[in-house]
Amino acid sequence: MRRFALIFVLSLVSPSLYAQTLTLTSYFYDTVITGLSVPTVMANIGPDEFLICEKNTGRVKHYKNYVFQGNAIDLAVSNSSERGLLGICLDPNFATNGGVYLYYSKAVVDGGTWEDNRVERFIWNGSTLTFDKTIIVFPFDATQNNGPNHDGGIIKFGPDGKLYVMTGDLNRGRFTNPRIEQNTSTSAIAGVGAIYRLNPDGTIPSDNPFFSQSDPRLQAIFAYGFRNGYGMTFDPLTGRLWATENGPNVYDEVNWFASGANSGWLKIMGPDSRNATYSENGNTSYDAGQLTYLPGAFYQDPVFSWLQPIGVTSIEVLASHKFWSPEKNNVFVADINNGNIYLFTMNSNRDGFVLSGGLADKVADTLSERNESRVGSSWGGVSDFVIAEDGYLYVVSLGFGNVYRIRPYNDKVLAKAFSIIEGSLKSGGIFQLNESDNDFMNISGRAERGNVIAGQIELESKAPPSTTKTLKELHFILETHVTGTMGEKIELWNYQTQNWEAVSSGTAGANDKVTDAVITSNIERFIQSSDREIRARITWTRIA
């Protein structure tokens, strides 16, 4: 039996200087897309292929290999203030059904009179998006305020396969016209100011926290008391929903929401104990006991707050093989006011951040406390983070109209495909080749001795994208555990000679063995220039 995990590591040197700063010394960034007009969000639809939304034009732009291919669709949007094309996400079964969801402010023409905010489903055919169905509408209401601020717009599918829709309060629910979702009424409904949870077809799941309510506007709610926000993500390690919330003149927030949460707006922003006062709450100090609780609802303090609002936007968990400790599986947060990026370390329960000193109270009260978490500046107002299928973090700059890609200097690439030349697969697959852990691929092979090949496997991957930086080293890292004692040879395909070239040979046995084959010269011979392909072969021969 042979069990192994595979990674490639490539080191890069000679960093270039850019206008932005990124103080994480293990990472750099490059600019991959430019010339966008007020981009808001993007979706990764294939290898180096993206759909990018523009707020004011209503266009969804299609890029492949970072080159503009055309407009996938051009929606008529109301674009005054915070309205426009604001959200995009892919159906969980996008690969087979082509479903793409868009959140936008509907109008007859761009810049026209606002009709409603809505989420609609479209079908991707490889070049354009075609309307399929309307999922949810947040309509004009003559009895209430209708914005144009606090439109939210971020939409995501959760690990439960449900669609989560974030919408702000559209300036509704003030004390002069009170509403449940803004904690100012016990009976009247705003129809906005919440995170909604829907089935992919727009119907309401029966396990929603307020499904027993008679009004579908309440039945669809997952969490409420929400002023406005532009960031939402699911922690892949726990499934928790994390979201950012924009305050008025005090207290932007980072929260995680369980089903039935009441975030406190408009009576409370920031920690309940801070007793924040501002014009919207009548400059009155409220506490959590004075909120409006639907049956089963509960209040929870924010995980972190900024006393002076930063215009907090996107949030993303860095759960990718491209990120290394201490950043891996921790949290990036961005803002629009300053163009900053912040890094927060999750606690062991992954329900809060590791904070100390002046931040131990979970509030950045001063500029210096705010900057303790800052790892990037001058990014032009970040509107979206996306971890693409290549594992890199893509950053959408609304202010600069660009998309950037954050990459590690020590860049790990994983096996994309494998084939067993000799032997048979007993358990595991491509995912068991990703990390050094106790989850291995298992292969059985021939038992003959005397330098007879007992097992052999070939692997395919891709080197990191080409860059102005210089490739310094290539490491092929292999972890094995075998029955008996075997000879073990690692070969890489030399694209210059068109032959296999041995880069390591030795023995493997019953104890886990890690081999690090290091190549420091003429690295490009192992990388196909046209598509960055790398091929490897591991051969085992029984010697005892």
Structure, briefly:
The chain is mainly β and 544 residues long. The chain is 2% helix and 44% strand. Strands 1, 30, 32, 33, 35 and 38 form a 6-stranded antiparallel sheet that branches. It has a 6-stranded mixed sheet with strand order 12-13-14-15-19-20. Strands 2-26-24-23-22 form a 5-stranded antiparallel sheet, with no helix packed on it.
Structure keywords:
6-stranded mixed beta sheet, single chain, 544 residues, disordered N terminus
Folded structure, characterized:
With 544 residues, the chain is mostly beta strands. It contains 3 helices and 39 strands. Strand 36 and strand 37 form a beta hairpin. The radius of gyration is 26 Å and the shape is elongated. The two termini are 14 Å apart.
Shape: elongated
Which range does the strand content fall in?
35-45%
Rounded Rg: 26 Å
Q: Provide the helix percentage.
A: under 10%
Low-confidence stretches: 1-8, 12-18
> What characterizes the major β-sheet?
6 strands, antiparallel
Number of DSSP helical runs: 3
Q: How does the helix and strand content classify structurally?
A: mainly beta
How far apart the termini lie comes to: 14 Å
Overall number of strands: 39
Average per-residue pLDDT, rounded, comes to 93
Task: Write the SSE topology.
Blueprint: E1 2-13, E2 21-22, E3 27-33, E4 39-46, E5 49-54, E6 59-64, E7 67-74, E8 85-90, H1 94-97, E9 99-106, E10 116-124, E11 129-139, E12 155-157, E13 163-167, E14 194-198, H2 216-219, E15 221-224, E16 231-234, E17 241-245, E18 252-257, E19 261-262, E20 298-299, E21 304-306, E22 312-317, E23 331-335, E24 341-344, E25 363-364, H3 367-371, E26 374-377, E27 382-387, E28 393-397, E29 402-408, E30 410-413, E31 417-422, E32 424-427, E33 441-444, E34 453-462, E35 470-482, E36 486-494, E37 499-508, E38 513-519, E39 533-542
Parallel strand pairs: 15-19, 19-20, 21-25
Antiparallel strand pairs: 1-30, 1-33, 1-35, 2-26, 3-29, 4-5, 5-6, 6-7, 8-9, 9-10, 10-11, 12-13, 13-14, 14-15, 16-17, 17-18, 18-21, 22-23, 23-24, 24-26, 27-28, 28-29, 31-34, 32-33, 34-39, 35-38, 36-37, 36-39
